[in-house]
């Protein structure tokens, strides 16, 4: 059984740009782009990448600190969106 399952997880942020007349331009910043991964209990897993690659954003989504825009993720069978309290208990961040 996989303890962490991430499927097509995506997280975007909106960056406000320069003012144009009465509005500001908005730009979507894609922090995590359709990430999928499975990690089994006891497996050693590393998350590597350059600055701005989305490593921290992915971890924050898994810890239920950010809500992903697309995709699903479960930790020990508990969905990070529909059951965040159980996920936080499993991770020890209650």
Describe the structure in your own words:
With 94 residues, the chain is an alpha+beta fold. The protein has one domain: 3-Layer(aba) Sandwich (Rossmann fold). The protein has 2 helices and 4 strands. The chain has helices at 55-62, 84-91, and strands spanning 2-20, 23-40, 70-75, 78-79. The protein has a 4-stranded antiparallel beta sheet with strand order 2-1-3-4. The protein is elongated and about 55 Å long. The two termini are 25 Å apart.
Estimated structural class: alpha+beta
Shape: elongated
Residue fraction in strands: over 45%
Number of helices: 2
What's the CATH class label? Alpha Beta
* Unreliable segments of 5+ consecutive residues: none
Task: Name the assembly state.
Answer: single chain
Give, in order, the helices and strands. EEHEEH
Query: What is the strand arrangement across the widest sheet?
Result: 2-1-3-4
According to CATH, the homologous superfamily is P-loop containing nucleotide triphosphate hydrolases
What's the story with the biggest beta sheet? 4 strands, antiparallel
Helix content: 10-25%
Mean pLDDT: 92
Rg from C-alpha positions? 16 Å
Number of domain modules:
1
Distance between the termini: 25 Å
The CATH architecture category equals 3-Layer(aba) Sandwich
